[in-house]
Amino acid sequence: MNNYLPFEESWISDKISLRSFSPDLIDEELKWHIDMEDRVVEILNDNDWKFQFDDQLPIKMEGTIEIKKGEWHRIIKGSTPLNVKITRST
């Protein structure tokens, strides 16, 4: 089984982590997926990455993005690094 993840992650607590995405990723490494819990993603740096919910147009990754459990979504690679803080709900 391949446990590769397209980011580096460090944990602040059991519900909060920091993730860093490199612009050197291959586009195919960023797949459509769903999460098993609600999440709030806080974008921590200026970047040119995009976020997309299923059946919606991509949006610039800035500010915060709320993702509900079971919502299909993906990120679209930019040419700069991307750093986010993810807070998971119970």
Q: Structural class of the secondary structure composition? A: mainly beta
Number of alpha- plus pi-helical segments: 0
Mean of the pLDDT scores? 94
Radius of gyration using CA atoms only:
13 Å
Q: What is the rounded distance between the termini?
A: 27 Å
Q: In what order do the strands lie side by side in the largest sheet?
A: 1-2-8-3-6
Shape: globular
Low-confidence stretches: none
Largest sheet: 5 strands, antiparallel
The string of secondary-structure elements, in order, is: EEEEEEEE
Number of strands: 8
Beta-strand residue percentage:
35-45%
**In percent, how helical is the residue content?**
under 10%
Describe the structure.
The protein has 90 residues and is mainly beta. The protein contains no helices and eight strands. The protein has strands spanning 8-11, 16-21, 39-43, 50-53, 59-60, 64-67, 73-76, 82-88. A five-stranded antiparallel β-sheet has the order 1-2-8-3-6, with no helix packed on it. It has a three-stranded antiparallel β-sheet with strand order 5-4-7, with no helix packed on it. Strand 1 (8-11) and strand 2 (16-21) form a beta hairpin. It starts with 7 loop residues before the first strand and ends with a strand. The mean pLDDT is 94.
Please specify the SSE layout and strand pairing:
Layout: E1 8-11, E2 16-21, E3 39-43, E4 50-53, E5 59-60, E6 64-67, E7 73-76, E8 82-88
Antiparallel strand pairs: 1-2, 2-8, 3-6, 3-8, 4-5, 4-7
